[in-house]
Design goal:
Structural Genomics Hypothetical 15.5 Kd Protein In mrcA-pckA Intergenic Region, Chain A, 86 residues, alpha+beta
Length: 86
């Protein structure tokens, strides 16, 4: 599954267009490398999201095409979630 779609389905980012823009802004890393919106994500991959004052690192657990809102948090495991003060 494409990373921009995964970010939307998993509810890490609310809209796919926003996920695409964040990827194009080089703020998402996939297994330590900058990810383009079309990068393929699979179970076991580690994503690092640099969202302004917040940095999240998550491990991909599953990549279904659809997920209900109450099940979205089951698609990833949070490894790190820190807020930076700037």
């Amino acid at each position: 599954m494409r990373i921009d779609k995964y970010l939307k389905v998993s509810r890490l980012i609310k809209r796919r267009t926003v996920a695409k823009e964040i990827c194009e802004g080089e703020k998402i890393n996939l297994n330590g490398k900058t990810a383009k919106p079309s990068a393929e994500v699979k179970a076991g991959d580690v994503l690092t999201l640099n969202l302004g004052k917040r940095i999240m690192e998550v491990k991909v657990v599953a990549t279904p095409n659809l997920a209900r809102a109450d099940e979205a948090h089951l698609l990833y495991e949070v490894l790190r979630d820190e807020k930076r003060s700037e």
